[in-house]
Design a protein that fits this description.
single chain, Aldehyde Dehydrogenase, Chain A, domain 1, Aldehyde Dehydrogenase, Chain A, domain 2, 2 domains, 25 strands
Length: 541
């Protein structure tokens, strides 16, 4: 069967779907969590259509997999009131627990998560079209992230469990919570990236309002009871609905202390402007990127092709860390493109439950039309689709398109495509990709492919001042989670890594006293008799 025929018959009939994957489908989600209570919503609900379409005699059609509540501003404000009350100006049960006690709660939660792994993974696959294998990896990585975060917190607390004496002043420095945190994650990693803000925010003693993404909301349903049972009431509140209606009133209240958002700079800027006291708002933002790859003459082309395919097309390119544009030194451009186009066309594609599948349907409604606009604009302005059948569409499936040569008149040269469209262009002088990065609105990462240490060194020194991660002979990526993850310009605000996240959701706070005999006796008595959870020398093992 020709490639184009395989693409046009990519979707299964309902009878071809394994029955085990249909357990719990459709999921009619009516519960939401506010103030330690799973409440039942009897109002309007959002229908959830999977990116996996189902074929019938008339052709492929979207597959209905469930519904979730469309709450209103009223419920959003109730969640805010619950979080504010649970924090109680830092006097609530959760913010005044010891670090060891909060760690214990989080370990219990991780155990409860594992109990519902199959349901979470299944919803993740159905909701965003991520392969079953990668959905399991996302779940496992999230559990590992929790354990790594708790280990890092123990290290941080051990360092803080001693007194410092400077200039005859005794001090103990620890980290204290910020207050109420609003967490909003992205659809492409709706579990993992949401939890990279949620987990450190909680474990540092903050209270949280969690708004799941539009695509990737159902997967939180199996977790509601664990949130309810493990954490004190009001500490974690989970609300569903349209963000543009629910979130601005929360920001306008001035009661949100930290905004943790993985999304777009447009959304972040709009929300920040809503807050009446910007100096009281800390923002932790993971935003867009337009990460380039620079392939130099002398690079190992087999390696470069392999890494660029992975970097540009893992999860269909729907990642902020994806390679979004390829700069090819002119002498090797043709050779690279021939191998790259062949490798793209050889990628296994199909339904997300198939073993070894790499390309799957794209998640967002209307995304194939959006991607086709990029392709049409580039072709109109002189680019060609270099891989046969590239940009072929079948329902929600878009076969990757390699565009060459692109130029600065094309939308795909400047805009983040966030999907399987790969623009490439040749360069004669290395200054060309450097200037592209200098003039870009984004500054997350870059990948450099080459084998000349002198040339690579000359590139590394200026590029580390344009982006926050330079990858040598490898794709752009977030991990490992112990490495800092951030960006310059419109790509990020704040740094997320296992240890950085603990710091970004807390603030250094100290207790100090002059080194007098009276003060030493007071401090000794407090510590010896365990009268304070902050002023303490307990060592967490």
């Amino acid at each position: 069967m020709a490639l184009i025929e395989k693409i046009q018959s990519v979707f299964p009939r309902a009878t071809d779907i394994p029955e085990t994957l249909l357990n719990g489908i459709p999921c009619i989600q009516t519960g939401y969590l506010i103030d330690g209570e799973i409440r039942v919503w009897d109002g309007p609900r959002q229908k959830v259509l999977s990116p996996v379409w189902v074929m019938d005699d008339a052709g492929p059609k979207p597959f209905f997999i469930g519904e979730y509540p469309l709450l209103t501003e009223t419920e959003a404000r109730q969640a805010l009131d619950a979080a504010v009350a649970a924090y109680d100006h830092g006097r609530g049960v959760w913010p005044t627990l010891s670090v060891a006690e909060r760690i214990d709660h989080m370990e219990q939660f991780a155990f409860r998560m594992i109990e519902v792994k199959d349901r979470v993974v299944r919803f993740l696959m159905w909701e965003i079209g991520k392969s079953l294998q990668d959905s399991e990896k996302e779940f496992n990585r999230t559990i590992q992230y929790i354990h790594d975060t708790l280990a890092a917190l123990k290290d941080l607390d051990r360092i803080s469990s001693r007194f410092t004496v400077e200039e005859r002043i005794i001090g103990q420095i620890r980290r204290a919570p910020m207050g109420v945190v609003l967490c909003m994650g992205p659809f492409n990693y709706p579990l993992n990236e949401t939890f990279t803000t949620l987990i450190p925010a909680l474990v540092m003693g903050n209270t949280v309002i969690l708004k799941p993404p539009k695509h990737g909301a159902l997967l939180f349903a199996p977790l509601l009871s664990a949130f309810l049972d493990i954490f004190p009431k009001g500490v974690i509140n989970v609300i569903y609905g349209e963000g543009r209606k629910m979130i601005p009133p929360l920001m306008a209240s001035g009661k949100i202390n930290v905004l943790g958002l993985i999304g777009t700079s447009k959304t972040a800027n709009a929300l920040k402007k809503q807050h009446p006291n910007p100096n009281r708002l800390r923002c932790v933002l993971g935003l867009e990127a337009k990460n380039p790859a620079i392939v130099l003459k002398g690079a190992d082309l087999d390696l470069a092709v392999r890494e660029c395919v992975l970097g540009s097309l893992s999860f269909n390119g729907q990642r902020c860390t994806a390679l979004k544009i390829l700069f090819l030194e002119a002498d090797i451009a043709d050779a690279f493109l021939a191998r790259f186009a062949e490798a793209v066309n050889a990628l296994p594609f199909g339904m997300p439950w198939l073993d070894g599948v790499f390309l799957t349907p794209v998640a967002e409604k209307g995304k194939t039309d959006h991607l086709q606009e990029f392709v049409s604009d580039a072709i109109l302005k002189g680019a060609r689709v270099m891989n046969p059948s590239g940009a072929t569409v079948c329902g929600s499936f878009f076969f990757p398109a390699v565009l060459y040569p692109v130029n600065d008149k094309m939308r795909v040269y400047h805009e983040e495509q966030f999907g399987p469209v790969i623009p490439a262009l040749p360069f004669d002088k290395i200054e060309e990709p450097i200037l592209y990065m200098i003039n870009s609105n984004y500054g997350q990462q870059v990948s450099i492919f080459g084998n000349d240490p002198d040339q690579m060194a000359r590139l590394i020194d200026p590029l580390v001042n344009q982006v926050c991660r330079v990858n040598i002979n490898s794709q752009c990526q977030r991990g490992p989670d112990t490495f800092p993850f951030t960006g310059r310009k419109d790509s990020a605000e704040g740094t997320l890594s296992v240890s950085d996240a603990l710091r970004v959701f807390s603030i250094r706070t100290l207790v100090a006293a002059k080194e007098t005999e009276v003060n030493k006796k007071i401090i000794t008595r407090i510590v010896r008799d365990h009268k304070s959870k902050f002023l303490a020398t307990d060592f967490i093992l």
